[in-house]
Design brief:
With about 300 residues, the protein is α/β, with parallel strands linked by helices. Helices cover about 30% and strands about 25% of the residues.
Length: about 300
Amino acid sequence: MVVANEASTVLGRKVAEALGRPFSEMIRKHFADGETYHAFPADVAGKDLIIIASTHTDTSHQELLDLIQGGRYWNAATINVAIPYLGYSTMERAKPNSCEIPKGVTRTRQIFRAMPSFVAFIDLHSEAVLHAHAGEIRTEHVWTDELVTKKIRASGLSDYVLVSPDYGFSKRIARLASLLECPHTAADKDRYDTDKTIVGQISSVVRGKTAIVCDDMIRTGSSIIQTARRCLEAGAVEVAVMATHLVMAGNARERFLNSPITRVIGSDTVPGIESDDLLDVYSVAPLLADIFKRHLKMGSGLAG
């Protein structure tokens, strides 16, 4: 049985279709006092329950916990979770003596303590969250490399260089560049406040080429837009952006529209993100379907 938290319903339907299974819409009621009623639309006892749930908001995180615990209460055979986008994923560690709560770890620990059988994450900011359990939960970090390279090849962009906005992401960029058989480079980024960064100069390898600035997510877009401008200063003829998780917080969209960036390529891991005149969105549904087919031995090969 394939279900989803409310926010991830659209992606849940796509995953179910790729699996060749019907999608089961949860029964929900919202009461005047703010409480939410949930019921499975059919008996889950003895079934392999698949839950698609991004945890980009507190409500979506809590609903995922409810669905896992509900599956356990009604005796699902296994409970298999895909978290396309993990909220608080950049808060995977606390600075010494700061007394801050590393919610990337503590919230993932809450998910593990609800006791799912299997949890898959897509393009994590840090793999530290994978180890926030005592070893009893099977986890998998799923990379979108195949989907990304296919999307870039089909984008119409040519003679491109992949650019990382910081050295921390450069290993992933090197891997993608190897698959695309193109050069890559990295900027020097320094974070001086919660949502504020400054980006240094870019290598001249971008001169005369199309720069594709790559990152795991776009929140405010500040550092990516800075990187794009540095690329143009270094001689790039065009700048596009590729990021898996298009959070697009606050006025990020307006910032991009007023920037020199020509397009933003990304996935549908964050609910509500669709292709338009700025965004070029691909779906991770085939990738997730393939993961569940392999994990639950439903067949082999990439889902259609």
